[in-house]
Amino acid sequence: MENSLVNWLSEQGISTVNVMQILFSLMISILFIQSGLDKVFNWQGERDFYKSHFKDTLLNGTAPFLMPVITLSELAAGFLSGIGLLVWLFTGHTEIALAGMLMACLSIIQLFLGQRVAKDYAGAAVLVPYFLLAAAGVYFYLL
Fold first, then answer.
1. Is residue 117 packed enough to be buried (19+ CB in 10 Å), middle (13-18) or exposed (0-12)?
2. Average pLDDT per 10 consecutive residues for the chain, totaling 143 residues
3. Which of 31, 33, 67, 93 gives the lowest tally of CB atoms within 10 Å of its CB?
4. In whole angstroms, how far apart are CA 55 and each of 51, 61, 114?
């Protein structure tokens, strides 16, 4: 039995790899734009959380310096993924979308490091599926 949706997508020039690229880009773009904007619009609350979270670690006192870094990293990952998806759909060029996926991986690694340093192992564990999502996105763009 043939799959009519797969056949239709194929007729449109959209492969199964392309479908995965679209889905990964959408997910990463939503995830990181929302997370970054949440930090921007709740800056004081986020800063207070980070100060408290890292108060007994070697990152104590670094929240004012590291928050802009992670916020910009998250926003870059989200916007590069979203804009990259549009560029890919209209031009066929995937470089920007791939950069978004790579930036997502780096952002999650930054967050993971912070959670591990804070000895928040449960928080670090929650980040692993997000990293796998972003890494799989990189994989599909490199195919």
1. middle
2. 81 93 98 98 95 93 94 98 97 97 98 97 98 98 96
3. 93
4. 6, 7, 12
Task: Give the dihedral sign, CA 124/126/128/130.
Answer: negative
- Supply the pLDDT for residue 6: 84
Q: What pLDDT, on a 0 to 100 scale, did the predictor assign at position 2? A: 67
Burial of residue 80 (number of CB atoms within 10 Å: 0-12, 13-18, 19+) = buried
Q: What six digits make up the tokens of 42? A: 């709740």
Q: Which of 85, 80, 47 is nearest to 66 (CA)?
A: 47
pLDDT of residue 9: 87
| Per-residue buried b or exposed e for 35-56, using 16+ beta carbons within 10 Å of the residue's own CB | bbeebeeeeeebeeebbebbee
Q: How many Å apart are CA 63 and CA 65, to the nearest integer?
A: 5
